[in-house]
């Protein structure tokens, strides 16, 4: 068995979408699982679609995601150049195209635009495709040479017979056979001398010893033409794995509008790289055991491409959020704090201990932007209704709460130590003396200092952060509020 070599072969045409990242991840995992090499090749022969800066996005994304390549434009492994426009300069594509011409598997075509425009078109998979009528295949050797000598513009086309069928094999889809008559004589070399994407891809995968190709199933329809090229050269084709489409929750193609189209967008929305990678790994692949959380290392260990499924994968942002939350819970606190700090600073402009607040929210948020909703009350108690003091299970009402708060106020005023532990002890002593349940006291205190039904910490944890002065002012305000609003409701 030859060494496993996979490649991620992006065309630099924009951001790195979830589907692209999944192909890259699977290629990386297949290589690393087998102790092989993962290569980066830039497919930039389609100059019209080239987007400035897109190559940098590819590097940045792979690097951030930890999908480090063993070979690539910046890392020579003896198979370079790794950028197709540079490979072209050596004449490699033209050389291989000419080999096919010699074998009768390709031919020069000098047809001009007007003639091509007059040819009939067919609708294939919703796209209008022109089926070339092999007009130039009948040119004699002399005619071809004369045209070339005269500098007539030309393309080189693949010669696909009108009869018979072509069969290719895909790991997920099995053997697929198509009638040759349905395949058009696709262009291999364009009139500007550049190879087409399809041709360069085949030549490069072979000459770079690629053993496994993973890509989106939008390429499935080109696969038979690839197979014919491999057969024409007498090359063994790599293992092909065409991945099912990733759809959104409504089973529509992922789009920018649905908010989860590119890796960078997800990171910007506050997701962790590790969670995104973990989640994307499961978009079409399932491990043997029923488990969902995997580090990249663990994915390398477990990844068996035979377990990739061909049913469409649904990108479920709710699931991704849950997974992100699991990563946050498991994260080392200092690392969490470093990432959470900017989000906390945006909300908390007072001089509170942000680390304490971070420790409170760590297990409660799914993504960092959730922090805002959990901590807003630290800056200001929101408007609330005194009915919030009523809690069935705690047996509290606005009236019992007012009584408790009034009794506690002098104790809180006299208290010097505002640490969570000391305050908690104070409340426990009060509870004991009163002979009531904990919640009967904790509920009104927490409501008074936060104005919220749900807070990231208990009453005394919140008071520790707020400090004596602010805590007292909130409790006094709550007493005043309960007194006035109680009168109003009487
Ligand atoms: N250059 C192609 C793309 O960006 C790669 C397809 C393939 O992996 O063969 O989609």
Q: Approximately how much beta-strand content do the residues carry? A: 5-15%
The quaternary state of the protein chains shown equals single chain
Q: Mean of the pLDDT scores?
A: 94
User: What's the helical proportion of residues?
Assistant: 40-55%
Small molecules (ligands, ions, cofactors) in the structure: glutamic acid
Tell me the overall shape. Answer: elongated
Strand order, largest beta sheet: 3-6-9
**Structural Rg:** 33 Å
Which segments are poorly predicted (pLDDT under 50) over 5 or more consecutive residues? none
Number of helical runs? 19
Distance between the termini: 87 Å
Q: Helices and strands: which structural class?
A: mainly alpha
Largest sheet: 3 strands, antiparallel
Total beta strands: 13
Overview of the structural elements:
The chain has 490 residues and is mainly alpha-helical. The protein contains 19 helices and 13 strands. The chain has helices at residues 18-33, 54-65, 84-89, 92-102, 113-118, 141-149, 197-207, 223-233, 263-268, 273-281, 296-302, 317-330, 333-347, 354-361, 371-379, 398-414, 420-434, 438-450, 459-489; strands at residues 5-8, 37-40, 106-109, 121-124, 127-130, 155-158, 165-170, 174-179, 187-189, 212-216, 239-243, 246-247, 313-314. The protein has a 3-stranded antiparallel sheet. The chain has a two-stranded parallel ribbon with strand order 1-2. Strand 4 and strand 5 form a beta hairpin. Helix 1 (18-33) crosses helix 11. The longest helix is centred in the C-terminal third of the chain and has 31 residues, at 459-489. The radius of gyration is 33 Å and the shape is elongated. The structure holds glutamic acid (GLU).
């Amino acid at each position: 068995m030859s060494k496993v070599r996979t490649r991620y072969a992006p065309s630099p045409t924009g951001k790195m979408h979830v589907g692209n990242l999944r192909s890259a991840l699977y290629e990386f995992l297949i290589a690393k699982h087998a102790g092989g090499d993962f290569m980066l090749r830039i497919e930039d022969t389609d100059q019209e679609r080239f987007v400035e800066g897109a190559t940098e996005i590819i590097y940045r994304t792979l690097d951030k995601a930890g999908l480090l390549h063993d070979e690539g434009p910046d890392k020579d492994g003896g198979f370079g150049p790794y950028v197709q426009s540079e490979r072209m300069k050596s004449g490699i594509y033209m050389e291989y195209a000419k080999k096919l011409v010699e074998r009768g598997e390709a031919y020069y075509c000098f047809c001009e635009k007007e003639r091509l425009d007059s040819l009939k078109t067919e609708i294939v998979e919703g796209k209008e495709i022109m089926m070339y009528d092999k007009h130039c295949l009948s040119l004699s050797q002399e005619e071809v040479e004369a045209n070339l000598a005269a500098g007539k513009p030309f393309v080189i086309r693949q010669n696909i017979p009108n009869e018979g069928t072509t069969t290719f094999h895909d790991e997920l889809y099995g053997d697929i056979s198509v009638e040759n008559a349905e395949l058009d004589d696709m262009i291999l070399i364009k009139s500007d001398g550049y190879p087409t994407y399809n041709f360069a891809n085949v030549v490069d995968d072979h000459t770079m010893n690629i053993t496994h190709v993973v890509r989106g199933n939008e390429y499935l329809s080109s696969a038979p033409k690839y197979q014919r090229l491999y057969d024409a050269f007498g090359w063994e084709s790599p293992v092909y794995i065409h991945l099912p489409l990733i759809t959104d929750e409504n089973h529509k193609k992922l789009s920018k509008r649905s908010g989860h189209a590119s890796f960078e967008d997800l990171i910007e929305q506050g997701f962790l790289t590790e969670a995104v990678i973990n989640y994307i790994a499961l978009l079409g692949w399932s491990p043997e055991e029923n488990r969902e959380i995997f580090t990249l290392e663990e994915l390398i260990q477990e990844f068996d491409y035979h377990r990739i499924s061909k049913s469409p994968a649904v990108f479920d942002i709710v699931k991704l959020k849950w997974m992100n939350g699991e990563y946050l819970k498991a994260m080392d606190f200092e690392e969490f704090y470093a990432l959470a700090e900017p989000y906390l600073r945006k909300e908390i402009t007072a001089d509170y201990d942000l680390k304490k607040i971070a420790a409170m929210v760590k297990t409660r948020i799914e993504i960092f932007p959730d922090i805002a909703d959990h901590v807003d009350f630290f800056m200001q108690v929101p408007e609330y209704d005194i009915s919030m003091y009523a809690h069935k299970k705690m047996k509290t009402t606005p009236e019992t709460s007012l009584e408790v708060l009034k009794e506690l106020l002098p104790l809180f005023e006299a208290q010097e130590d505002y640490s969570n532990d000391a305050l908690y002890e104070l409340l426990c002593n009060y509870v004991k003396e009163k002979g009531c349940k904990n919640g009967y006291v904790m509920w009104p205190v927490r409501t008074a200092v936060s104005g919220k039904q749900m807070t990231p910490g208990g009453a005394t944890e919140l008071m520790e952060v707020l400090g004596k002065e602010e805590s007292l002012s909130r409790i006094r305000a709550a007493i005043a509020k309960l007194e006035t609003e109680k009168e109003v409701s009487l």
